[in-house]
Every structure is written in structure tokens, then in C-alpha cells.
Amino acid sequence: MQKKLTILHCNDIHGDFLPKRGALGMFTGGLSRLSGYVKKVRAEEDNVIFANAGDMFRGSVIDSEFMGLSTIELMNMLSPDVTTVGNHEVDYGLAHLLFLEKCAKFPIINADLYITLNNTRLFRPYINVEVGGMRVMFIGLLTEEVISSTKSERVIGSYINVAEAAKEVGIIADNYRTKDTDILVLLTHIGIEKDRELAAMLDPDWGVDLIIGGHSHTFMDAPEIVNGIPIVQAGTGSGQIGRFDLVYDDEQHRLVSKEWRLQQINESTAPSDPLIDTLLDSYKTQTDAKYRRIVTGFARELTHPTRIQETEMGNLYADLLQEDSSFDIMMMGSGAIRKKALGPIVEYQDMIENTPFDDQLWMIKVTGGEFRRMIQYVMRDDAWEGHTEFYQYSKGVRIVYRKSTHTLEELSFRGKEVEDGDEFLIAMQTYHYSNFEEFFNVPIEPIKDRMRPRVVATSVNNIIEEYFTTHQGLDAHVEGRIVILD
Q1: Predicted TM-score (pTM) of this structure
Q2: Which of 2, 209, 217, 449 is the most exposed place for a label (fewest CB within 10 A)?
Q3: What does the pLDDT look like over 341-388, one tens digit per residue?
Q4: Which helix (H) or strand (E) holds 38?
């Protein structure tokens, strides 16, 4: 007997709660229509599972103002059958995440976060979802970047190696996958490249059928097949949803058909959900009263289209943080800039949503040789998949890198080639300083011995807001600070 199953999935919503008007005037995305589409499919199909592959939080003042509680309430209305933990789920702290889990009316799974003192898992590692006489097992796996976000919480550990994560899948499959398990799905938040590595390491006897992922914000036209396992992801935001239409054969005990597509969410494909609209309006009324005020006006709209190249907004932020400072170079994390475009009118809400990671600014002293090794490591092959940290640099820095030969053809500052014996005062946000050795592959202790690192600003957004309010008509251009050659 053959049975049909539909699995809907989203990932990296990042507070993308409200619809946007597209180029043709049609509203796209928004939680209301995302919920409307899920409800529509649940009404049309007999067997439906809705899964979320992590990173519900961040990106919206509605999320940050209520420290994720608003997001949990909204997700409760979407009613996913299963959710896994993303790296931004820990942005408000592990203790707060565990509180939010108690508020969730949907299961949150993760197999590789644990308490180091006794190896106790923090979450359920898997869940069996039973629908239409089928049992579907989901196992949750998280990106190694969670360790980057929880450096101060030393009692928390994770399997940060893909091989160890694959081994953990085997342990769970061997212990909990039974004859009643029909389909096994890995619900991951490790990025498309790590998903490929993971799939290649999986033993076929473990019976993994699908990998539904997140973290790298990958938009796909079709699944990638690795080791016979389809890997899918649904980009980022609420403007689309992944859809698997599957056929399971009881007698063969396997999936005999796997059709997948990325479904756009807009006025023509999905009705709105009035319950979501009502709750969003309630939250929006509160945040609008606090955040809807004009901070500045740019000369024009400035863009940040991708994390892995020099951008207009990247130059603007790096320059304003370096201006009148005590350091030579600002290294602004590309991922700390969240919007693809900003302006020309900038409200406080826009400003906060664009740089939501408001932490301290640290200054360190590095040699020219260390700086060169840092840049060389940042430009490694993994960077072009969007899975590593990438940076925007303040004025005076020029980097020319050739990918084909892995060669740093130029590294200069203020027109002078960087020499090994040079010294530079460099600033970066706490997240990057706390993970210095991991992100740059340069030992931190010699740097600390040279000059004690110190906090030069307690709030990045305080600097940004003050600069915006005292400067009108700001503009920035891509100037060739970062040149990437093939």
C-alpha cells in the first residue's frame, strides 16, 4: 500500500514577520500568509508535517523588544510539528532559550547541545511524528557556531565536528530507530556545505531519507543529492516555503517518490491568517510607538547585497565606527549587517533591525604579519559558500585576493604594503574578539602580551545612532577595498 505525505519546511525566518510590497506591487511573504499557506495545504492534503530548521529569532524589533517571546507566541500560532535550534536561538542566552522552550507549544529538538559536566542533553534529540499511519523520525543538529555565541557559558558543549555529528546520528538511529520508523529526516542548522559533508558520512544502514537544513540561507531550484540523500533548504525569511510531496510504500518500506519545490508565498499563492494579523498588529502597535522616529536621511538607498564582498553599507558602518577613534582599522562583521538595503529615510526601527547585535567594541594591537594571516584565513575557500565570518574594512585598507591560487596579491594600508613588522590597532565587536582564534586562526595570547585588549565602546549602536543623527545625507560607495579575483 502506498501513502502520500507532504512535508512543508522553512528556516532562518529571522523576524521576517511583515509582508513586503514587491516590484509588481504584489505583497510577498509575512507570517500571516506563511501561516495561511500551511493551513491551506493542511486542508487540501491528508498527511502534512510542517518543520522549521532553526533561526526563528533576530532581524525584527518585534522580536528583540520582547526578547523572542513575541516570536514564540507567533510560532505557536503557526503550529510547526517540529523545530530545531538555530545559532541565533541562543542570542538572548541559553537560560532564556530554555525559558522560551517552556513557552513553546511545539517541540524543539537538538541532539548535540549538552551540559559538559555530565553529558546531559539540553533538548530532546529526536521526535517521532505520526501521521496517516506513518512514523516519521526527525533528528535535530546545530551549527558549530552556537559555541561562538556561548563562549561565556562554559558548562555548555556541542559536537562541533561534522564527523562527530554524523556519529551522533548513528547512535540515535541504532538506539531509537525501530521497525515502526518509516522515514528518517535530519533537521539541521549547519549550512549547505556542512550538510553535504554530513550526508557523505552517513551509513546507509542508518536509514536517513532526507536532510532539511538551514543557516546558509540557500535558495534552491532542486534538491542536492549526496550519498543518495536529498538535501534541501528554503532560503531565508518568510517569502517562500519548501515543499516535499512524498510517496511511501508500506510493502517496500521505503519512499518511492520524492518531489520537491520552493513555493513562493504571496497574495496569489496564500491567504492571510487573521489570527496572526491580529497578534502582529498588537505587537507592532507597541513597537511603532517606541521605534518609529526618523534618525537620518541618506543621500540615496545604500545596499549590502551579500556578505562575501565589499558593500556600500559595509563601508559606511566601518568608516563611521573608525572615525575619530583611537584605532587604525575597523573590522565590521558582514553578518552583523542584516538588511540588504537601507534608506534613504532611516527610522530608528530600521537602524536597530540592521545592526541588532549591539555589543562592545574591542581594540587590539596586531603585527602586519598577524594581520596578513588573519586576512588570508578569512579568504579561505569556505568563505565563498557563506559559512565563515567575512568582514568589511574601514578606509585605507585594500585587499586583492585571487581565489584560484589562494593568493593575497595585495594587502596595503593607506597606500603602503603591509609589512610583517608593522603594527596596527584593530577594532572588532565582542562576538569576533571572543572567537578570535577560531575566526582568524591566529593565537590570541601573543597579542594580549603585546598590549592588553580593551573595550573602547560599550555599545556599537550608540555610536551609530549618534553619527546618524548628527550627519544627514550620508553616502557610501564600493571603492575597491576588497577585490576578489577568480
Answers
A1: 0.80
A2: 449
A3: 999 999 999 999 999 999 999 999 999 999 999 999 999 998 887 778
A4: helix 31-44
